[in-house]
Write a structure and sequence with these properties.
By secondary structure, this protein is an alpha+beta fold. It is built from 34 helices and 28 strands. GO terms for molecular function: DNA ligase (NAD+) activity.
Length: 841
């Protein structure tokens, strides 16, 4: 039985919790100065819910707990607005705004009237009724005279106060404003919906409107809605301040959020200045706006101006250019990005959106196309916000040709013809022709030349960009064909202007120029301005440099570079660096190829386990799973890369241009543990072929070809259940899978012949031991020390633990040394490391 003291205590705690939660909402939504962490807010709300459940007599309609949503309603009741919610007239030009102000000036006989200005939020207009400071009813605008009762839904919007703050408020107060969805919240909501296979919202405005018209308030409670107050309707028993701006300030003090972008300006210039400021900031605002609103600030002036039809003469909306328009989707092109991402781009019938003619729009990815069900020929709604790339937001299905086929991602890259692939679990499709795809060329070459790859010192980003743009370098192999003339010519064209390029080249021609060289400058000159110069900017055309270099190279012109007038040492150094990089390791070479998901550690593992490029480049993807830590995703990526003829051609070209891999060796004897048909059948990820089933198949058939030739009933005879046998037969009926099994069988035989027996492999002196490097070594770089320790069998880790065998500490060793001493781990200095390496290498 509840005692009076406990009930009093509960009532006091409930009152305190409500006050604390209401204050938190006020500070968050009105003052934009939150003081309570989300976790603390949730903890206090749960405590209040528990107290109200234990003491039903303390429940209240304006409690913060009532925001969570109530039982669904069957329909919305109508609400008649005591004061109609009128619409505003629109202005679309400076002249219309000036005309609006002129009429007010003439009628009121004022020189520069003051206006309250505010952003025009793109949400849903609502009316909130308060009696004695408590929220009692909320309604939509409807047709202006009659709206729908959405009280239960509005109670879930935390920005709307359930009871007013302070004191002195009217016995009856009607507040009008806009419910909207903040852009960040809209984005987060849709991202979560996609992860959960839920329904995404078309745009913030539709999200806000649809949320308030849910018959189940619990659904509304899950939507990230916000609110701004911008006016009052019915006010009883209270005299408003004389101006609209003062009323907004009063509403703010009573607990209503009012846009911080609101203000007061004077005259036409003040209005237009505000419009331009908000237009410039439009794309950085946390909410969507489609214009600004001007209201005569003085209430007496408003009454004198009166109304015309359904709109006030004292207010107007100055609209921004429309951000959404309808047009026809004429085609879908595939654009390949620098990382190979294949992005669908819509080709549109030209349409003006937000003041700009739009002909293309992003479709993001294939999943987005499927969600929108966009088809060529559809009428679509295109949205553009400021400088953001236009996007298609929805389809108008009633205009669709009923025979329009669904769109599918093409199989081949439109740039290089390589296969377009999509990895399991990823939204992005990618071109697999990394080394040969022109769209990916700069990034591929930049990576190829980087320090931890081929380490071509001096080949920087600026030159790579120019080499690629001028087509001097079309693949990594072309780097090894660069001559001194090529480098200096490219640098000269890079630095010269279009008007001086011919003169700059003439200065360095050989005295004994051949006939082809003489033709280079024959009149009319090949280097004429209309070929080289962009008329609008008087700068190089995008293909101007490419044109100059191509015709000079085609003529086989010989230069005698005047070293007093042009620097050549940098080019000589770069030629030397390129030549030096020809001698490399398998690990570096594999990393340099830029295969997706293949970083340094994976490249090192491939080199260690397989040992030879010619072997690696011919392996089917399941064999790569024999390397520890390489799973299906990385193995498939390797397989796709080496299956592309263009990538194989680049490797051939690199080898033909004397790139040498100096550390080739036989495959690791450790491979033998997995070199059997059963293991590889599991690696191939055949449906319903588990390890047990794979062992049964391997025992029954012995090799891949016999398994491939066997009829389905033979699989059952081998011990497979009927469903497993059917799944295997179905899988093998696909030509691609049958070919893969054949390749796996051939590779298995080849590896079996190449791989030494495990007994012949001598264990390294550091096998099974973990080492850590810290500080600076004088005789070795950290990378060199790591490589030499790993060659002796050690695993080199980045942190010290109890499992660490020893720590090598150089100069200025830090926290890792302290940790080693704390744990009692053995510490070597550099001299001991060098002595150990000398003894065991």
């Amino acid at each position: 039985m509840t005692t009076k003291n406990s009930a009093d205590s509960a009532a006091q705690r409930v009152a305190a919790l409500r006050a604390q939660l209401e204050d938190a909402n006020y500070r968050y939504y009105v003052l934009d100065d939150p003081t309570l962490a989300d976790a603390d807010y949730d903890r206090l709300l749960r405590e209040l819910e528990a107290l109200e459940a234990a003491h039903p007599e303390l429940a209240s309609a304006d409690s913060p707990t009532q925001r969570v949503g109530s039982t669904p309603a069957g329909h919305f009741e109508e609400v008649r607005h005591a004061v109609p919610m009128l619409s505003l007239g629109n202005a679309f030009s400076d002249e219309e705004v000036a005309d609006f102000v002129r009429k007010i000036v003439d009628r009121l006989d004022v020189e520069a009237p003051s206006f309250s200005v505010e952003p025009k939020l793109d949400g849903l207009a609502i009316s909130l009724r308060y009696e004695d400071g408590h929220f009692v009813q909320g309604a939509t605008r409807g047709d202006g005279a009659t709206g729908e009762d959405v009280t239960a839904n509005l109670r879930t919007v935390k920005a709307i106060p359930m009871r007013l703050r302070g004191e002195g408020w009217p016995p009856v107060l009607e507040v009008r404003g806009e419910v909207y969805m903040p852009l960040a919240a809209f984005k987060a909501y849709n991202e979560k919906a996609l992860r959960d296979d839920g329904k995404v919202l078309a745009n913030p405005r539709n999200g806000a409107a649809g949320s308030l018209r849910q018959l189940d308030p619990r659904i509304t409670a899950q939507r990230p809605l916000a609110f701004y107050a911008y006016a009052v309707g019915v006010v009883e028993g209270y005299e408003l301040p004389p101006t609209h701006s003062a009323t907004l300030q009063q509403l703010r003090e009573w607990g209503f959020p009012v846009s911080a972008e609101s203000g007061v300006v004077a005259g036409t210039e003040g209005l237009l200045g505000y419009y331009r400021r908000m237009g410039a900031r439009r794309d950085s605002l946390p909410f969507d706006i489609d214009g600004v609103v001007y209201k005569l600030d003085d209430y007496a002036g408003q009454r004198e101006m009166g109304f015309v039809s359904r709109a006030p003469r004292w207010a107007i909306a100055h609209k921004f250019p429309a951000q959404e328009q309808s047009t026809v989707l004429e085609g879908i092109d595939i654009q390949i990005g620098r990382t190979g991402a294949a992005t669908p781009v819509a080709r549109l019938k030209p349409v003006q959106v937000a003041g700009v003619v739009v002909t293309n729009a992003t479709l993001h990815n294939a999943d987005q196309i499927a969600r929108l069900d966009v088809r060529i020929g559809d009428t679509v709604i295109v949205r553009r916000a400021g400088d953001v790339i236009p996007e298609i937001v929805r389809v108008v299905p009633e205009y669709r040709d009923p025979h329009a086929p669904q769109w599918r991602m093409p199989e081949a890259c439109p740039v290089c013809g390589s296969e377009i692939v999509r990895e399991e679990g990823e939204a992005v499709w990618r071109c697999s022709g990394e080394l040969t795809c022109a769209a990916q060329r700069k990034e591929a070459i930049r990576h190829f030349a980087s320090r931890r790859a081929m380490d071509i010192e001096g080949l920087g980003e600026r030159f790579i960009d120019l080499f690629v743009e001028t087509e001097v370098v079309k693949s990594p192999a072309d780097i090894y064909a660069l001559t001194l003339d090529d480098l200096i010519l490219v640098k000269l064209v890079l630095d010269a202007s279009p008007s001086t390029v011919e003169m700059s080249l003439r200065m360095h021609l050989s005295a004994n120029q051949n006939e082809e060289a003489a033709k280079l400058f024959e009149a009319p000159s090949a280097f004429r301005p209309e070929v080289l110069v962009d008329a609008d900017s008087n700068d190089w055309r995008t293909d101007g440099r490419q044109y100059v270099i191509r015709i000079v190279r085609d003529r086989a012109v010989r230069f005698e570079w005047n070293r007093k007038k042009i620097a050549t040492k940098w080019a000589e150094n770069l030629v030397e660096a390129i030549d030096h990089s020809r001698r490399t390791t398998l690990e570096r070479f594999l990393f340099a190829l830029g295969i997706q998901h293949v970083g340094e550690s994976t490249a090192k593992a491939l080199a260690l386990w397989f040992g030879d490029l010619e072997l690696i480049r011919r392996l089917p993807w399941p064999l790569f799973k024999r390397v520890p830590d390489i799973g299906g995703e990385v193995a498939r990526s390797l397989g796709h890369f080496f299956d592309q003829p263009g990538n194989q051609q680049v490797i051939d070209d690199l080898l033909a241009r004397k790139v040498e891999i100096g550390d080739a060796h036989a495959p690791s004897p450790k491979l033998r543990d997995g070199l059997n048909l059963a293991t590889l059948l599991v690696d191939m990820e055949i449906p319903k072929v588990t390890k047990i089933r794979a062992d049964q198949l391997a025992t029954a058939f012995g090799d891949a070809q016999k398994l491939l030739d066997a009829p389905e009933h033979a699989y059952i005879t081998a011990g497979l259940p009927a469903d497993s046998a059917q799944a295997l037969a179905s899988w093998l009926s696909v030509d691609e899978n049958a070919q893969l099994l054949t390749r796996v069988g051939e590779a298995l035989a080849r590896l079996d012949a190449l791989t030494p027996a495990a007994s012949t492999a001598a264990a390294g002196p550091l096998d099974g031991q973990t080492a850590v490097l810290t500080g600076t070594l004088s005789a070795l770089t950290r990378d060199e020390a790591k490589a030499r320790l790993e060659a002796l069998g050690a695993k080199v880790a980045g942190s010290v633990s109890k499992k660490t065998a020893f720590v090598v500490a150089g100069e200025a060793a830090g926290s890792k040394l302290d940790k080693a001493q704390e744990l009692g781990v053995e510490v070597w200095d550099e001299a001991r490391l060098l002595a150990f390496l000398a003894e065991h290498e």
